[in-house]
Amino acid sequence: MANERTLVLVKPDGVRRGISGEIVARFEQRGFKLRGARLLKISRATAQKHYGEHKERPFFGELVDFITSGPVLALALEGESAIAAVRTMMGATNPVNAVPGTIRGDYALLMGENIVHGSDSKESAKRELALFFPDGLV
Ligand code: IDP
Ligand code: MG
Fold first, then answer.
1. 30-84 pLDDT, tens per residue?
2. Which atom of ligand 1 is nearest to the CA of 51?
3. Where are the domains of the chain?
4. Is 121 in the pocket of ligand 1 (CB under 6 A)?
5. Which CATH architecture has domain 3-132?
6. Closest ligand to 54 CA?
7. Could you give the CA distance from residue 137 to residue 120 in angstroms, rounded to a whole number?
8. If you measure from the C-alpha of residue 75 to the centroid of ligand 2, how many angstroms do you get, rounded to a whole number?
9. What's the predicted TM-score (pTM) here?
10. Contact between residue 94 and residue 111 where contact means Cβ atoms under 8 Å apart
């Protein structure tokens, strides 16, 4: 048993399509507590920091362009094994392989427009929560 906090982003495609509320509802229904929520347009500098682990990848430029292309909804979620459980709810990175019932499996088909981000480890969660919620969580 481990109570954890994790960062979720409803990416610009999710906000544009008007499904942010449905995504928040899924996490709340699962039992996660909302500890922070912010609608914001990410700066390029923040995007480059957030996706720093991918900076050598060929798709890095597209990734930064996309995540800064419109508002995102940043969520801080808390609950049992939140980091892994949220990743399971998101589904595979490539939505073509995401199982129906997962967020990506229900709402997405394209790798570059896969609706959600979720922290992938304790270290990432700590770093990403500090980046998007610099004033701390409730
Ligand atoms: P994750 O979002 O499931 O954690 P990561 O490997 O961390 O996946 O990649 C970050 C984001 O970069 C993905 O959500 C996806 O939108 C995009 N991405 C990952 N791999 C590729 C690729 O090979 N081509 C284009 N975009 C990619
Ligand atoms: Mg990732």
1. 999 999 999 999 999 999 999 999 999 999 999 999 999 999 999 999 999 999 9
2. 10
3. 3-132
4. no
5. 2-Layer Sandwich (3.30)
6. 1
7. 19
8. 15
9. 0.98
10. yes
